[in-house]
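2024-03-11 09:14:02 INFO worker-7 job=invfold-0412 stage=load source=structure_tokens
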């Protein structure tokens, strides 16, 4: 087991990519604390995940610095330490607001979770790791969209671009403490957000036509990459943002020979489970 006796925190771990990461960490022997703002979803996730190992839920709003500090403190209370911190919690603008109409409230809401939460969550975890004196790992969740100019997701892409830069400077700032920092950049993954995209066959076809592998990924595939970045196998990987996107990040035009998904195939793709 690659993470035996390690203690990990996964923010936004009650569903989607965070859930997949938590599951894979548990399978590799880690004790895991998941956090989310929705207590009901968090408790339900723990009930499902406990078949894989020792897991605990802490309610947390990562956009509040003190909430991140309380999350780390509660993890130490439950499991004695923190070895791995995964900054996964993220939100998007469901209204696809145009740049000219974005409000201060919208900006603060999305940046608060997607960038401020990563900044101060990582800081709180790193302080605990430094106190322990034996290093650790931070895994940030960015996005392939951090590198794509999607004006309909302006705040989301801007915040995720910030996560990529933050990952680099965190890595430099924490190298003296043997804390490695890297990020994963998911592309189209079977999450709630992707299912909203998938509710529109035309939009879904647009995304898949620019994904050479021809399918969406799974949260557990993201989890396997997060295991690699948390374990000793990645000790020479430094400040990187690693794409897990089926080729979406570099495919600007529809894949040659791409055939539009039929109604039957679309229904099958919609039935992919977590």
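2024-03-11 09:14:09 INFO worker-7 stage=emit residues=274
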């Amino acid at each position: 087991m690659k993470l035996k006796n390690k203690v990990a925190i996964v923010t936004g771990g009650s569903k989607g990519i965070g859930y997949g990461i938590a599951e894979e960490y548990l399978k590799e022997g880690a004790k895991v604390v998941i956090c989310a703002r929705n207590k009901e979803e968090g408790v339900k996730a723990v009930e499902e995940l406990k078949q894989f190992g020792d897991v605990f839920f802490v309610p947390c709003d990562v956009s509040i610095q003190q909430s991140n500090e309380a999350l780390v403190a509660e993890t130490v209370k439950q499991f004695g330490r923190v070895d791995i911190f995964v900054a996964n919690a993220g939100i998007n603008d469901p209204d696809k607001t145009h740049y000219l109409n974005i409000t201060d409230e919208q900006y603060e809401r999305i940046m608060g979770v997607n960038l401020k939460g990563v900044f101060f969550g990582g800081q709180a975890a790193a302080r605990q790791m430094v106190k322990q004196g034996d290093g650790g790992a931070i895994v940030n969740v960015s996005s392939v969209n951090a590198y794509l100019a999607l004006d309909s997701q302006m705040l989301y892409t801007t915040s995720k671009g910030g996560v990529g830069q933050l990952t680099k400077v965190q890595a430099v700032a924490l190298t003296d403490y043997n804390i490695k920092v890297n990020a994963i950049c998911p592309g189209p993954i079977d999450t709630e957000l992707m299912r909203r995209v998938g509710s529109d066959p035309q939009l879904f076809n647009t995304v898949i036509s620019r994904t050479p592998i021809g399918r969406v990924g799974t949260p557990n595939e993201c989890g396997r990459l997060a295991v690699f970045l948390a374990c000793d196998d990645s000790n020479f990987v430094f400040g990187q943002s690693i794409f897990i996107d089926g080729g979406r990040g570099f495919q600007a035009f529809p894949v040659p020979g791409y055939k539009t998904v039929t109604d039957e195939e679309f229904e099958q793709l919609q039935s992919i489970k977590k």
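2024-03-11 09:14:09 INFO worker-7 stage=report msg="The beta strands are 7-11, 31-36, 55-59, 84-87, 136-141, 179-186, 241-244."
2024-03-11 09:14:10 INFO worker-7 job finished
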